[in-house]
Amino acid sequence: MTSNPGNRWVGVILAAGAGSRMRSSLPKPLHGLCGRTLLEQATWILREAGIERIVVVASPMLAADPRLSAATDDGMTIVVQSEPLGTGHALLSASGSTGGASHLLVANADMPLITPGTVQTMLATHVDAGAAITLLTGKGDVPEGFGRVRRGPDGQVIEIVEQVDADEAALAIDEFNAGYYCMDADVAWDLLVGLKPSAKGEIYITDAIAAAVADGRRVTAVIAPDLSEVIGVNDRTELAAADAVLRARIRRRWMLDGVTMTDPDTTYIDSEVMIGRDTTIKPNTHLLGSTSVGADAMIGPGTVLEDTVVGDGARVVSSHAESATIGDRATVGPFSHLRPGAVIGPDVHVGNYAEVKDSVIGPGAKIGHFSYVGDTTVGAGANIGAGTVTCNYDGDVKHQTHIGENAFIGSGSMLVAPLSIGPGASTGAGSVVTRDVAPGILVAGVPARPIPGRKRSHPTTEGPSSSGDIRSREKRQ
Ligand code: UD1
Ligand code: CA
After folding, report:
1. Residue 14: CB within 6 Å of ligand 1?
2. pTM of the predicted structure, to 2 decimals
3. Is there an atom of ligand 1 within 6 Å of 27 CB?
4. Is residue 378 lining ligand 1, measured as CB closer than 6 Å?
5. Fewer CB within 10 Å, N or C, the chain?
6. 249 phi and psi angles, rounded to 5 deg
């Protein structure tokens, strides 16, 4: 294995092609699988293999796309290939930007399933063999459109024949070019400038192989250990196929790491997701983006979590959460919607048909039944009754609501923000609360007014029901 490839190697990702088979207005490298764009996936493969410096060859359209700048970092340079004049021309466009690196790892951006381990094997083989070029190949059923790898009688690679230029004999070859290459930088720049355009007017990187052999240089090849690594993405059927392979890999990794999936085939987990041990993922569940789930949690069935953090021992059933946080042992759903900024504290219960947005729900609070809670803080142990609405929007501006610890919000309360309800205070069923409520006070009516002498005697987190029906409490008193 090469020691610290980061120092001597520069990765060059070829991403400037027209991508016309995608039939898309989005540049192909920005199409996604398992939560990453093809370009992010290519970058990930190279970085995991130990290559730190990366040059991306982009089309003018890709270079102008804000999603590209969002995905770049300090170790990455973008160069523009102004016209898609072929893969060889694309690599040449990077020649001024590789900072004098001695070795290049050239990667087609549309090969998302190559594993970092296979790239490391390529780097090691290249160095050990003292090769000028080392290519990655696949052996078996040749996917449509891939170049064939022709070897001489001694088994050495002598050329790559593109499918469009292949005769019957070449078409019968069962080894194909995967589009990942190690190259000595000096040799690459030397060879590429001498290449002639193809019949289509493109300069093919693949022609550098025959040119190197003609120059008496050593070309070696690494055969991918599994054909599933060398699936390319040229159209959307291939994108779906690659997505399926990557998802299966991700699921397998998590199951081997101690996560139970009751129906892996309907469990969708993005690349960046983290999951703790002994968590169970039930069918029809999607864990997307930067979601992380703790240990001993139960997620699903029928749940979508996007960029959401879930604590240990939490349960989320048939619900949808985006950019939300769900605390340890909290229970959510069925049929709840947690929108961005929903922070559900530990031991909270969010029941059915509740929507929470930009709100912090304190430990042990309950929102058991259909409710809207937005721009709100809810204190520990508070009980939000069925049908409660924080009326946070006056048509122009969103206003805040504060609900104190152990407050008891009666069923059907309309809380007209800005509003503050003190700790231990209560609202009667059907109240329209327009003014702040002092700690421990009961208000009721439309608009709600304090009920004299009716302080809650036992502000508590416990209750006969979490439905927020104040009358049942009063009867008990
Ligand atoms: C290429 C190879 C083929 C190989 C296959 C495997 C060539 C000539 N052929 O074919 O042997 O089997 O990849 O992946 O290289 N690109 C540019 N600028 C261009 C043209 C392409 O940056 O002018 C980029 C594309 O964005 C893409 C990559 O290079 O990421 C490969 O281009 P593509 O057109 O997909 O090549 P293939 O026809 O798949
Ligand atoms: Ca391709």
Report:
1. yes
2. 0.93
3. no
4. no
5. C
6. -60, -45
Ion ligand 2: residue ranges with CB closer than 5 A = 110, 232, 234
Q: Count of residues for the chain? A: 477
Q: Is 179 in the pocket of ligand 1 (CB under 6 A)?
A: yes
Atom of ligand 1 minimally distant from the CA of 176: 12
402 has catalytic annotation: no
pLDDT at 6: 56
Over the chain (477 residues), the average pLDDT of each successive run of 10 is: 67 96 96 97 97 97 91 91 97 94 97 98 97 98 96 97 95 98 97 94 97 97 98 97 98 98 98 98 98 98 98 98 98 98 98 98 97 98 98 96 98 98 98 98 97 64 44 39
